[in-house]
Design brief:
Elements lengths: L11 H7 L6 H13 L2 H20 L4 H14 L5 H16 L6 H16 L6 H25 L1
């Protein structure tokens, strides 16, 4: 019988991972945040364009694109610190998702107008945005409650 030889091979990645130095997690996260933040202006313009399309769909009472446009806004807003905007568009997604077939246009329009106001304030929390979010929460509770009542 022959003796078995075991070779311990260390990959290039393993050598690099065990080498001293490099970037700390905090530094890497800060660099990534800085890189993303560099795209904020372009993202805000994209939010504005999508919101304009959403406003047009509301004006035309075209239900089909509402959820998809709201979801697109939610996706874009999620990459940046958009606080109240993100919360308001999430509320619109919930409301529009539950309205299949029976649209309550005033609820949708109030959400869209609130989104426009929050976007004009650069998506920062303010006394106005707090009041708007409280109103949207009441609309969402009413809309979701109506859907629950209709199914029981």
């Amino acid at each position: 019988m022959s003796d078995v030889k075991i070779f311990k091979y260390k990959t290039n990645l393993a050598r690099k991972m065990s080498a001293p130095g490099g970037v700390t997690i905090d530094a890497a996260l800060a660099a990534a945040d800085g890189a993303v933040e560099g795209h904020r202006e372009a993202a805000m313009q994209a939010l504005d364009r999508t919101l304009t399309e959403l406003e047009a769909a509301c004006a035309a009472r075209t239900a089909e694109p509402i959820y998809d446009q709201a979801a697109s806004l939610l996706d874009m807003a999620g990459f940046f610190d958009t606080g109240p905007f993100h919360q308001a568009v999430f509320s619109l997604c919930e409301v529009s998702d539950r309205m299949a077939g029976a649209w309550d246009w005033p609820s949708v329009e109030v959400h869209v107008r609130a989104l426009r106001l929050i976007l004009r304030e650069d998506c920062r929390e303010s006394a106005n945005s707090i009041v708007l979010l409280e109103g949207l929460a009441a609309i969402r509770r009413r809309a979701l409650g109506a859907v629950t009542d209709a199914t029981t």
